[in-house]
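Repro:
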Amino acid sequence: MDFVEAFDAVGSWMRTVLLNEWTFFQLALIVAGYVLCGLLARRIEPVVEARARTIKGNPDLLRVIIAFMRRLRWLFLIVWLWIADAMLLRFGWPSYRWLVATALTLAAAWFVISVLTRIIRNQTLARVVAVTGWTYFAAYAVGLDRVILTTLDGVAFNLGAVRLSLLLVLKAIILSFALIWLAVLVGNVSAHWIQRSADLTPSFKVLISKLVKIGLIGFAGVIALNATGVDLTALTIFSGAVGVGIGFGLQKVVSNFISGIIILLDKSIKPGDTITLGDTFGSVRDLRSRFVSVITRDGKEYLIPNEDFISQQVVNWSFSSDYVRIEINFGTSYDSDPHEVARIAIETAASIPRVASTYARPVCWMTGFGASSLDFKLRFWISDPSNGLTNIRGQVLMALWDAFKAAGISIPFPHREIIMKTPVEVTRA
């Protein structure tokens, strides 16, 4: 009898809820919305894609736009179902909208999760977000979310005057991660916009970008703590412990961070500068909060702590000007005309493309009478030291060799004089 009554109850529920005109009406609304939204998305997606392809130098923003663009059908469907749900709620009974409301929840869940898994680059993290999100939305769709939240909140213990529950810990972790990740994403997009500004110096661009990103991350952390109900005054002890930790164990980290800010403020080092620090010669590629990335001509990238740029002697080849003077020493035979040698050397150096002859014409001076040759010094300027110094010296020397050979001017070998003495025979009486 109990089985029969349960079967009759289920059949009555199906006839009342599922097999009625309002259920078929809701199903028709969902199907019609899916078809219409698909047609609308098919027309709008090419326009959005053409507009997105004009974005240059901002990959984070482009990735977000593409993630939304590929799912415009679901975005439009969410709007359609939201309007339909609002109309049914206003002009009908709540039971007349259960299918539309469920479809709206599932469509929104699918849209949010698919966009997040597209934006998040880490595949493992994307899968974790997808599984967690689908689990929660599935529980919400069937009405089990309150039971799960109540169960998680029941697992708790008191830490002094603070009650810590599993629900609070999970909310704090999820909100903090989501908001900080969003802050980093917005900070990266803002940094790309700032880098495109033509009115700011390179070092000031880096400084503003870092301050914006740090401010957004701090603001996101405060919002996450307030949203989870954590009293910020309870963090005073923690902040004191952090201060002690900084005083004992994080001196280098804080020193490099402050040194990085000083470098950006005084503009002594900026991206693109050619610098020499100790045995390292290369171009500054990036300025970070802890180190400076310097890439050398052989492809090695040195991550030099910011503190070294404050405490050690640094040669910045392009601090106030990009022009660098290079000297080359050479000698010719005593049979050559020194005036002609100087003229040929100047014209040869000026013919090299990398030599900035418009900035300052090359000069060549005779510096002495050597043991085997007339000694000369050739000086010229270049404007791109980041492209290398040894290679331009080699180009000029090769050009001098060809020019002197064509003019009949020889470069002598060192002369050595050898005196051989024969032994004197001693006669005996």
